[in-house]
Amino acid sequence: MEEALQLIANGVVIGSVIAVAAVGLTLVFGILRLINFAHGDFLTLGAFAAVVGTGAGLPLYVAAIPAILVGAGVMGGLEKVLWGPMRRRGASTVNLLIISIGLALVLRYTLFWIFGSGVYRYGPISQRIDFGLFALTPQDVIIVVGSAAALFGVALMLQKTRIGKAMRALSDNKDLAEASGIDVNRVTMITWLIAGALTAYGGIMLGLQGRVFANMGWFLLLLIFAGVILGGIGSAYGAMIGSMIIGVTQELATHSAIGLPSDLKTGVAFLVLILVLLVRPQGIMGRKQAL
Amino acid sequence: MIPYIEGVILTAGIFALLAQGLNLHWGFTGLINLGHVAFFAVGAYTMGILNTQFEVPLLPSFLAAMVAATLMGVIVGLPAIRLRTDYLAIVTITIGEIFRLILKSGPGVSELTRGPRGIRGFSNDFYFFRMDIGLGFLSPTQYLLLIVWVTVAVVGVLLYLLIKSPWGRVLKGIREDEDAVRALGKNVTAYKMQSFALGAAIAGLAGVFFAMDIGSLAPDTYLPIITFQVWTIMMLGGSASHSGPVVGSIIFWAIFNGTLFIPREIISGAEAAYLRQIGIGALIMAIMIFRPQGILGNREEMALDK
Q1: Is there a domain that residue B280 lies in?
Q2: Which of the two ends of chain B, N or C, has the fewest CB atoms closer than 10 A to its terminal CB?
Q3: Do B97 and A267 touch (CB under 8 A)?
Q4: How far apart are CA A171 and CA A154, in angstroms?
């Protein structure tokens, strides 16, 4: 039982990171129907942008600000020079999906080129704090609290602000939203900027776990897909719940009663992804029409 | 210089074979398969395990590799093939990764595959065999090169005939408009499965040759990047073109290995490796943006508009 509680706590930590990344991915999908295979590498971009800051002696919470701006700027810039023009030329979903695979490689190996294959850290990882039922490092606690705050912010934005309502409207029914006077290009751009900022933030959270390296986001990508699809693609709240389930499931799979080698824990999450697509492709929160 | 060129042509042949299989999936049937590397791996491992641990002779183990890859195609295809395109992409890449993880540390499996340590010692018989058939004057590389390219030619002719046949016309019909083909009373799922299984079998055979080339098997050779390389090759040559996989593969590997000629003083080996991957990514983007039909492809014959 003690072991299970500890694993669940670990799962919540990684699930929080996946959730922040997944919400960005699913917001973009909701509006553009684009499955972005480069999304994981944007996490890495954010994490490394913060490494530059901490390397210059800034504390992480200061270095995070330019890193988040870099994430938003690059995603927004790509909408301007790549995705927008391609859509106007009538590129199909599959065409854009393949482009995103190429973009992922360019982004990832540019980071490899600049930073090498080594491992970077924001700082030393502190001793675990014993919470009685489980123990977490202070960094883990920051990840959970920081992610929860970001997700709460997104929820608030979606529910309360004009732009959030416009995003939901566009995601529900593009034609209807457009006909009711929503400026699609503007909302699309803002969605990219929010997704870029969130993803960079998620990347920093991922790096806070201990290691920053050029493959980190790519290794998380399929778990992000799993969280998004389990929750229901296009649904931001679904992505949060789905990611949490994925995080906890893959940690629990290593429980000694199950005895799976920890190498295979991501395999379990992948299996969940496939099963969901086969049994209930609309996920937990999604609706059939959104497919 | 000569061994370098031979190496390029050999690798190009193996990847041309892979691209022929993928071209059947994507170019001719419109199935987006991002897990091609799994079929490549299953072929290589089936041959390797049978040959080293069960002492199955070469030819039967080659055939078994193709059968195993076909079965894998059916196993992957059965659930996945009904999904819409972007989900099929996610499922196939995920299955490829699950398969690699299982090869590496799957309970019960890693004893057979020897996990990350891998398998060696299956290629000796294969190379000695050239003496028996009077090809002893060829170097091992030349011998493998010959076999690979003969296979590419045979598979190429076979695919040409198949695609020209009524069966092939149905596949192309599915690519263009699945519902229309279904309305004509064809069993679309069955056709898709056949295409998927046959393409997988071709990839399995490519896996056997690849294993012979590098002489060992290790799970982490079979990363998704291989699938992306095959996609680049297929799109570069032109999807739905019969000569596309061959032309694409030769151009791809000539460029890819060309970076070896950049002096180390200018770019270190590791940097050159990163630049190659950046180049692959940029190439994928450039083809999709500027010439989605590739060098030899026909714009009318693209599965992109679904």
Answers
A1: no
A2: N
A3: yes
A4: 15
Return the residue matching tokens 């290593």.
A254
Instruction: List, for residues A29-48, the tens digit of each pLDDT value.
Output: 888 888 899 999 999 999 99
Domain limits for position B163: 2-222
The percent helix, strand, coil of chain B (3-state, each to 5) is 80, 0, 20
- Residue A287: the pLDDT is 64
In chain A, the residue whose alpha carbon lies closest to the alpha carbon of B223 is A219
CB proximity list for B279: less than 8 A, separation 6 or greater: B255, B256
| Residue B50 domain-assigned (yes or no) | yes
Residue range A235-290, pLDDT digits in tens: 888 899 999 999 999 998 888 777 788 778 888 889 888 888 888 878 777 765 54
- Asked whether residue A165 is assigned to any structural domain, the reply reads yes
Cβ–Cβ contact A278 with B under 8 A: yes
Are the CB atoms for A68 and B277 separated by under 8 Å? no
Is there a contact between B285 and A281 if contact means CB atoms under 8 Å apart? no
Residues of B in contact with A112 (CB under 8 A): 274, 277
Q: B101 to chain A: which residues are within 8 Å by CB?
A: 263-264, 266-267
Segments forming the whole domain that contains residue A205: 2-118+139-290
The ipTM is: 0.89
Closest partner residue to A106 (CB to CB) among B102, B278, B305 is B278
Tens digit of each residue's pLDDT (9 = 90 or more) over A184-204? 889 999 999 999 999 999 999
The secondary structure of residue B26, as a DSSP letter, is I
